[in-house]
Amino acid sequence: MKIVALFLFVCSGAFSQNPVRAWRTQHEEQILSEYLKLLAIPNVAADRTDLQKNADTLMEMLNTRHVAAQLLTMPNVPPIVFGEIKTPAAKRTIVLYAHYDGQPVTPADWDGGDPFKPVFREVNGERRIYARSASDDKAAIFAQLMALDALQASHIPLKANIKFVWEGEEEAGSPHLEEMLNGHRDLIHGDVFLICDGPVDQSRQQTIAFGARGDTHLEITVYGPKRELHSGHYGNWAPNPALMLVQLLARMKDENGHVLIPHFYDSVKPLSETEKRALQEAPVNDAKLMEELWLGHVEGGGKHLLELLNLPTLNINGISSGRTGARANNVIPATAIADLDLRLVVGVDWRGQQQKVIDYVKAQGYTVVESEPNQETLLKNAKVAYVKRDSGYNAVRTSMDLPISEDVIQAVESAHKPVIKLPTMGGSVPLEGIERATGTHTITIPIANHDNNQHSANENIRVQNLWDGIETMAALLEMR
Amino acid sequence: MKIVALFLFVCSGAFSQNPVRAWRTQHEEQILSEYLKLLAIPNVAADRTDLQKNADTLMEMLNTRHVAAQLLTMPNVPPIVFGEIKTPAAKRTIVLYAHYDGQPVTPADWDGGDPFKPVFREVNGERRIYARSASDDKAAIFAQLMALDALQASHIPLKANIKFVWEGEEEAGSPHLEEMLNGHRDLIHGDVFLICDGPVDQSRQQTIAFGARGDTHLEITVYGPKRELHSGHYGNWAPNPALMLVQLLARMKDENGHVLIPHFYDSVKPLSETEKRALQEAPVNDAKLMEELWLGHVEGGGKHLLELLNLPTLNINGISSGRTGARANNVIPATAIADLDLRLVVGVDWRGQQQKVIDYVKAQGYTVVESEPNQETLLKNAKVAYVKRDSGYNAVRTSMDLPISEDVIQAVESAHKPVIKLPTMGGSVPLEGIERATGTHTITIPIANHDNNQHSANENIRVQNLWDGIETMAALLEMR
User: Fold this and answer.
1) Which among B235, B321, B375 has CB closest to A313?
2) Beta strand A211-223 with A335-344: parallel, antiparallel or unpaired?
């Protein structure tokens, strides 16, 4: 009985210090149960009806909280959920961005088999919720809503105008975001556009990222025989596209992960003194991470992970040709496919980066085509590569020395200390289009745990990150 | 009416010249309908019950034809269907081998979606039957049975003893065939072991192969992070196993398909003068094949396909890491897998050939393990490759100058002219174990069309190849 009394005392002590935390500790089960309902709505980018259901639910959640809400729509594009709180005599408008769509799923790869049946699991004695978008990025949306509840319940008044911009097309590369924001410039205008997405540092400390890498993709298909052939009857005569592909990809990078494609690192903008200092102050988690990830070596030629995030990347997201494992057959496959991910940093243009890769493919003796090659094309050319260019966007980096940057740092530090300040986060958010359309700066405030399996099977959020995230969001909502 | 009469006249003309062909033309629909029933029994190597059903059906088909039949069994191994016809005063025993099991199937890749619902389709005005094993290798078994029917119906007496040995484990690499034959040496003994498997030459001419390449496999898995990682947050720091794999595989062969692994071609036994002459007499179909297969270039540095079949190969049957196409995600995959097929020729040992590849992997800086590596192994070593060695068997080449070789050539030439004589066929049959267990020579008599999609989706047999095959089998059954 004494222990329980002490525990209650500690809780109420927290109450007097931090009303947001106090409200949360009193409502945990109710908060989690509401979150599970949100996660149970499938949100795979390809399914428009599901995305609409998510948007409708978020509209309802805003309406319940008396936030003026509307859907910003465009034909054949998932809507933006827009919410607005006008504060009398406010001098600033804070815009909070997040996204409600999720990455594709392969249910068979998920423990439990259903990415949209959220489940709790204990990991190292800590509770986590497993579901697609549990971290990326419904966590941010939900933390904002809970922060609102906490502030309202604690009668803490807002000082600035608040706007919510929740996108439904981020995992597809946000191809229409800029156009949609542009079409509603007056509505979405603010003094800063806070991107609430991504994971915090691997040390689990609250992180602010003043930029994000840009992103684009290329899908490369190379061709062997028109149909799969018996590997005995045609082996060492019919060209094997899997071999062609591995030879094409192998020389794109050296053993240290340094990209060998000509001009790949040209025009990268160097870091400022403040940015370099912030990086030096950030913890180095590399050794711990290597152990956590069972890595016997890392790329980068001795540079730390946080430094490397300020360089462009070329990453093989996937390769496939023929079959492996139990489904392997004795064949010469007909095609081989690679999906390449290009991350960009400030100074490097996504179209230019795609072109460098394509020029490299050509320099390897390939005829590059931009549609499925026909018999004539394949017969006429020794080696043919069909390259599909995805859309993309460039990187953005907001100066840490701006007054709004300093105010955001101060707000976040009022909730958590220390705060890690990164010039660039490794992941990508379409900041470029946002800045162009809104005319404001972007700053990124992630809340998810780094080990969240984002973009993969078994995506999850550490419940403590959700709790911390609610406090972070409340601090931002409270900004002057 | 006159045209019909003329047609009947031509048919009956054929009858007087070749009773087997005449019998077939009179029974085509009945023959095909019986074949479809056989093809409708699933025969994927992994399903033991299905394989047993095939064996039971074949037993019944032999019994119906008054052939003394039995199943040669071994625990947990698909049975061999053994049939025997004793001919009074016979001086020779001819053994006809074929196999009733089929390659794995991926139904979604098949037009029609079911590899075990045989369907007729017209290709370039010719009828084909589509089903798994339509060519490989139920065609041979069925042609032998039909040849028996034709000879019996035409009252043509057999001159030699005949034995049928139909295996159920060939597509799994025949791991128990030698042991099973060994256990029944007296039963299966004969003067020649005729392997009725594989496709005829691309010119569609009847082919005899005096050997077959050996075969074995290696599955190589290389490791990146323990779990898939977000390609933005960890890209150019966490090693990408897809990149590691492509770099490992790329240097195994040059651009001409020449294997660069040290000693790969050492100890290949050169061709004899008769073998070289036979190769020179064989048609060169390369240009036609390139057009048929939409190939803009071929490997081999200028050598013809039929010559290249006399060299060992290294073929990538499949590679996979992450995902491609609509299922691609922005990840650094956790593993990358390659399935390698090694074809062997006489003089090259399968275990030695595996070892050369493994030594090469080690020389590339990999620690090679033979079971799934644990955390300790992965942390301790920069690069780890888990190599699964499959079982295998060596190549065999029977001299074309032996009396039995000359008699087989003469028999086949009595049904078809010209006959193409190859020292080695490209595909693999477990001839080595057969020769060891039986003490006899093997000669391979294929009947399937080359463009049969063997081992792939939409496997098929050209009906004319089935007709020709019945005549070939009848000629062998009639041998003295």
Assistant:
1) B235
2) antiparallel
The third-level CATH classification (topology) of the domain covering B15-210+398-477 is Aminopeptidase (3.40.630)
The domain at A2-210+398-477 falls in which architecture?
Answer: 3-Layer(aba) Sandwich (3.40)
CB contacts < 8 A (A, B): 354
Every domain of chain A and the residues it spans: 2-210+398-477, 214-265+311-393
Q: What pairing do the DSSP bridges indicate for beta strands A126-130 and A119-123?
A: antiparallel
Question: Using H for helix, E for strand and C for coil, what is the string for chain B?
Answer: CHHHHHHHHHHHHHHHHCHHHHHHHHHHHHHHHHHHHHHCCCCECCCHHHHHHHHHHHHHHHHHCCCEEEEEEECCEEEEEEEEECCCCCCCEEEEEEECCECCCCHHHCCCCCCCCCEEEEECCEEEEECCCCCCCHHHHHHHHHHHHHHHHCCCCCCCEEEEEEECCHHHCCCCHHHHHHCCHHHHCCCEEEECCCECCCCCCCEEECEEEEEEEEEEEEECCCCCEEHHHHCCCCCCHHHHHHHHHHCCECCCCCECCCCCCCCCCCCCHHHHHHHHHCCCCHHHHHHHCCCCCCCCCCCCHHHHCCCCEEEEEEEEEECCHHHCCCEECCEEEEEEEEEECCCCCHHHHHHHHHHHHHHCCCEEECCCCCHHHHHHCCCEEEEEEEEEECCEECCCCCHHHHHHHHHHHHHCCCCEEECCEEEECCHHHHHHHHCCCEEECCCECCCCCCCCCCCEEEHHHHHHHHHHHHHHHCCC
Query: Is the minimum CB–CB distance between B249 and chain A shorter than 8 Å?
Result: yes
Whether chain B has a CB inside 8 Å of the CB on A112: the answer is: no
A253 touches B: beta carbon within 8 Å: yes
**Residue among A294, A353, A375, A386 with most chain B CBs within 10 A, to mutate:** A294
With CB atoms and an 8 Å threshold, state whether B243 touches A316: yes
Q: Which of B308, B328, B454 sits opposite A237 (nearest CB)?
A: B308
Which of B232, B234, B319 comes nearest A428 by C-beta? B232
Within this chain, domains A2-210+398-477 and A214-265+311-393 share the same CATH topology: no
pTM: 0.81
pLDDT in tens, B213-252: 999 999 999 999 999 999 998 988 999 999 999 999 999 9
B292 touches chain A (CB under 8 A): yes
Residues of B in contact with A456 (CB under 8 A): 227-230, 329, 331
Are the beta carbons of B104 and A428 separated by less than 8 Å?
no
Which of A:211-240 have CB within 8 Å of B? 212-213, 215, 217, 219, 223-240
B 175-204 → A contacts, CB under 8 A: 198-199
Mean pLDDT, each 10-residue run in order, chain A (480 residues): 40 60 97 98 93 98 97 97 97 97 95 96 96 98 98 97 97 90 95 94 95 96 96 92 98 94 97 96 95 96 94 97 90 97 97 98 98 97 97 94 96 95 90 91 96 92 98 97
Residues of chain B contacting A308 with CB distance shorter than 8 Å: 236-237
Q: Please name the CATH architecture into which domain B214-265+311-393 falls.
A: 2-Layer Sandwich (3.30)
Cβ–Cβ contact B307 with A under 8 A: no
